[in-house]
Amino acid sequence: MRVLVSDIGGTNARFALAELDQGERLRHDSVREYPAAGFASAAEAARHFLDESGERVDAAVFAVAGRVRREEARITNHPWQIRAADIGAALGTRRVALINDFAAQAMAISRLRAGDVAAVGAVDWPGFDMATAQTYAVIGPGTGLGVGGLLVREGRCFALETEGGHAGFAPSRPRDMAVLECLMRRYGRVSCERLVSGPGLANLYAAVCELEGAAAEPWSPAQINARAAAGDARCRHAVELFCAAFGSMAGDLVLTLGAWDGVFLAGGVVPKLLDALRLDSFRDAFEAKGRFAPAMAEVPSLAIVHACSGLLGAAAHAAETYRGTMRA
Prior knowledge:
Mean pLDDT: 94
Number of helices: 12
Radius of gyration: 20 Å
Order of helices and strands: EEEHEEEEHEHEEEEHHHHEHHHHEH
CATH architecture of the largest domain: 3-Layer(aba) Sandwich
CATH topology of the largest domain: Hexokinase, domain 1
Strand content: 15-25%
CATH class of the largest domain: Alpha Beta
Helix content: 25-40%
């Protein structure tokens, strides 16, 4: 059974083919990425992928950066509205599943190998064990901030779909309060995504400049990160604030879900900021949870460095969903 898997964010849409048998195989040679702005709809982009590759499929799983409800989803940071019926019509199949993109990231945890993750902090991850009850959190910045979880119970995986990136930002230090006040003047309510995302890094840089009475340059997140690495003081401050906020949010998520088995850091920004995340700011904020600090110090935090973890998770979801229908 051949399945089209897709990972659609606010900026790019990725597609690939997965083949289901006893397990599932993601065909890495089939991966393609397109700017979402180049297509009128997700269905059009998917049809383009199949036409370009000369393939046909039996089913599809679309992991989308937005809330999925009644087989429909709207991308939070892009105007696409995605309907399973439209995808099915474009692909010629009624087997279409829409899932949140961080449900796919959560499912990917069950398929990650040692080389697919990099430790952030000194706590080792013993690896995934389907036979043991486990609870994981997954959080990651990209165009927005994705949040999810994975429950492993009685040999099965259950992904939690959330919009936790839109929860309110909770400052824990005086300088965080000052940054929050800057962002409140700009946005009113300040969600976690306003700080921990690609655009969030630009927001933090602008806040640093405002607090220092300097004019902010119109730099992109990539430019801010590059200038931070080159020694620019304000950009370095912005990156440090980003890592601390990210660590604090990841720690809060562990507490909220009871994810004592680990938190996975996903998304396109993570590999680019891995060196900065491995400095003290992330883990210090992650563990600074008052009476629960000793417990937090034992929780592993792992950066996902697999190039296509969203597609990997979509393929895992396809295996769970469609394996029993392969002969139907």
